[in-house]
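Example A, followed by Example B.
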Amino acid sequence: MTFPIPKPGLVIRYGFLWSHEKDAGADEAAKDRPCAIVVAVPKSEDNGIDVVVAAITHASPADPADSIELPPAVCRSLGLDSERHWIRLEELNRFAWPGFDLRPIPGTTARYEYGMLPKPLYEALRQAILDRQKSKAVRVQRRD
């Protein structure tokens, strides 16, 4: 099994655990979904990589400031369906790569990545999360 090299902007298939699931006692995500890698940082103690991901969902956000909508052309380039998609900003998952929750893309057995976000979209995602962190409006779930 070959996993992709984790890098910021890469969209992977992952079992994202929402805070409401964790608060209800769940250890596992209810479903697997596309997620964008926001940060991939080498760990000095074991040569591993710590990864932070943001979920991509069909669910329209209650507050538009909580998400960035993916343009249809980006969805097509990633191979996502034709419905609307949002990258959520208010909740993130953090784990040691590749972790237990990396999943193959539906219809494949060994492909875990959809592709890369365009650089301007990734930069907007990164900046929006940094801005939210300043006001402590981001919840990070540790997943390993």
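Example B, a separate protein, is given below in the same form.
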Amino acid sequence: MTLKQYSWKDGPDFIQQHSVAKHRILEAYLAAYFRTLVSSPNQDVLKLTLVDGFAGGGLYVHQDTRKVVQGSPFIFLKATREAEYLINKDRHKPVRLLVDYFFTEADPHAHKHLDKVLREAGYGPQIGSGIYLEHARFQDRADAIIEFIKKKSPRNGRSIFALDQYGYKEVPTHLMRKIFEALPSAEVILTFGVDSFMNFANDGDQVKDLLDGLGLPDIFAGRSIDEIKASDRDWRLLLQSTLYRRLVENCGARHFTPFFIRNRGGHGDYWLIHMSQHHRARDVMTEVHWANNNYFIHYGGAGLDMFQMVGYDPAHDSNYLKQSALGFEFDDVAKHASISALNEHIPRRVYADDTGISFGELFATTCNSSPASAQIYRESVGKLLDEKVVEVIGADGAVRRSAAQIKANDQIIAPRQRALFAG
């Protein structure tokens, strides 16, 4: 199947609801990101660079409603403006947000349209000074952008890269690894057209050359696609899960969370993968998934399983369709299922070591394979406390009695009068 690529030759192109959902996640994450970074009352400046590697033409028309929809460059700009207002409205010492923007776009019509609508929106004076609008491929400009960020923020390289590629070929893993190695506080939000990849793989084309180019050699351990399809009933799940694992591993990010977005027509499914070097950033994105209450799909379960993916389906978007959603969502049912699964898995981790494990380490070392946020982990441990399955001891020796009291450096241990745990 050939996907239709956007074109701004005659003005804003049409956008489908599943892509609007992607923008909604980006917008919600940016709002939470700013709140997390500006927490100290003594902070007076925040340096940040926002990179939109596949910026598009700036504006779209919704395919169903025919309303104009703003693209990611405007989402970046709007998020900063709103964050500055919200952060400073009750502060005695205001925070200056020193934010630079890189909007790169290879398509000439999209680049021209983005330049036009940014100027019409009043951003003309900033283009070339704070807003860097470049007609180029992101791959060709990545090194220069990285160097700009290193010079601006030499200690941490604080930045967000939104890499909303068309398909799956444009952002090889070695490029993302370069970002994380050079910029310790960088985060990447990557789209990967898994449905397009699967269709390509199904056709028996040059999959090996493609994977080598992405920096993913021999991910199927010498097995051919045809062999996997012939021997595994759930071959599609096997291919996707293997591809996902190796993709995030080879990018060099310590923490990641995937969001599986499904086209309403059943074609064009893709991953929205958030990657970072710190579990706190991962937790913020997970909280965004729960807060947006989108329909998600699990490949593996609600606890600490080795592989899981979450997903969005327009058919289950109550905000879009104004009707109740069905299935296993980021809702109370999913929350209870996650807590129940964690209540089975966490004691096994705790009992595996006589000294137990700190809450912070438990979350940091297992969160990549769970849909749960840190707050849900905390509620699970609180329930285990109530049931006397574990004990939680603070650094000062204080015994925690409830989930609300649990801190990152608290130690979770087996109870002194250890009951038999069926594991």
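On Example B: The chain has 14 helices and 14 strands.
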